[in-house]
């Protein structure tokens, strides 16, 4: 009888934020539990695709890099996609968008962003971590999921194990440096039911002025800095918040809510970014400039279906 061989990476040096993620946690928002999952779901998909994994296999989301160092305990083939965080395999540069061999004792190190903000490291079959409420994704605020089941980020001495079988390696069907979520900063937004309560001047500014990514950005949301927006709507009853919702608090500076957002909120909303634009935003560094572009729900759905079809054609 053939038994799967377990392999592992050991954390030699922790980084600012490295989390185990998968496709997300769904069907539990009525319990106050958010979706979590890979912030750039497209790069996450391609990292798994490179190894022939299931599309939602648990992988590692690495933000900024910041010296994160992992050491292989056994020989293995891994895959890296998404941002270029200055990865090195021992002393050799390692570009994202490909598989690579790592030998026992070799170290994989991430330094700082060169392009994009989030990289995804996949292993054959996905990491073997506990499933909590239908997902392996770490959500720090709710202390759910991840490599220890408590939502925590990687820390020195932690081990990440997997036992999946190696599949034939693949090559990305596009230039990794021109990945769909790493280029272009036009963010498509589907207007919401409260958009009519914003002043005409505010709406003009919202869609015609540039916005800069604020330093206050994390997996819960990203603040945009730009012209002050005004809404005539007074108090609101809190309502459900979708991925990509663009809330406007009293200071007039929009907040785009991401994967680890709260499940309800009471600020007026311009609308919501499309899933593709949310993935693009997740790769934007503080200080980068973006623009909001209004789109209809029909256009957004057609674009999303086209993106999914492209992914499935290469699956």
Automatic annotation (TrEMBL):
Gene3D superfamilies hit by this protein: Cyclophilin-like (2.40.100.10)
Keywords, comma-separated and alphabetical: ATP-binding, Hydrolase, Nucleotide-binding
A Pfam family per the record: CT_A_B
InterPro entries xrefs: CT_A_B (IPR003778), Cyclophilin-like_dom_sf (IPR029000), PxpC (IPR052708)
Domain Carboxyltransferase: 30-310
Signal peptide: none
Keyword Lyase: no
PANTHER family per record: 5-OXOPROLINASE SUBUNIT C, CARBOXYLTRANSFERASE DOMAIN-CONTAINING PROTEIN
Name of the protein this chain belongs to: Biotin-dependent carboxyltransferase
Organism of origin: Billgrantia bachuensis
């Amino acid at each position: 009888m053939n038994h799967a061989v377990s392999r592992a990476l050991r954390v030699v040096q922790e980084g600012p934020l490295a989390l185990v993620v998968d496709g997300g946690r769904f069907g539990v928002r009525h319990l106050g539990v958010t979706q979590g999952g890979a912030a750039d779901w497209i790069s996450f998909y391609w990292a798994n695709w490179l190894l022939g994994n299931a599309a939602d296999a648990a992988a590692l989301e690495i933000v900024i890099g910041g010296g994160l160092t992992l050491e292989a305990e056994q020989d293995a083939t891994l895959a890296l996609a998404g941002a270029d965080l200055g990865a090195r395999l021992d002393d050799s540069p390692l570009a994202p968008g490909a598989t690579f061999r790592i030998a026992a004792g070799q170290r994989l190190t991430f330094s700082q962003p060169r392009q994009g903000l989030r990289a995804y490291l996949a292993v054959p079959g996905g990491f073997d971590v506990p499933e909590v409420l239908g997902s392996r994704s770490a959500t720090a605020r709710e202390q759910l999921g991840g490599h220890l089941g408590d939502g925590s980020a990687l820390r020195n001495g932690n081990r990440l194990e997997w036992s999946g079988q190696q599949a034939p390696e693949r090559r990305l069907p596009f230039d990794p440096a021109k990945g769909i979520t790493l280029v272009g900063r036009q963010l498509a937004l589907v207007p919401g039911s409260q958009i009519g309560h914003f002043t005409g001047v505010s709406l003009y500014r919202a869609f015609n002025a540039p916005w800069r990514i604020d330093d206050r950005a994390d997996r819960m949301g990203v603040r945009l800095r730009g012209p002050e927006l005004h809404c005539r709507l007074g108090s609101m009853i809190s309502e459900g918040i979708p991925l990509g919702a663009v809330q406007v608090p009293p200071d007039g500076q929009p907040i785009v809510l991401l994967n680890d957002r709260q499940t309800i909120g009471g600020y007026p909303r311009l609308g919501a970014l499309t899933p593709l634009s949310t993935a693009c935003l997740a790769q934007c560094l503080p200080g980068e400039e973006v623009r909001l572009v209004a789109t209809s729900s029909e256009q957004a759905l057609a674009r999303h279906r086209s993106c999914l079809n492209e992914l499935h054609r290469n699956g």
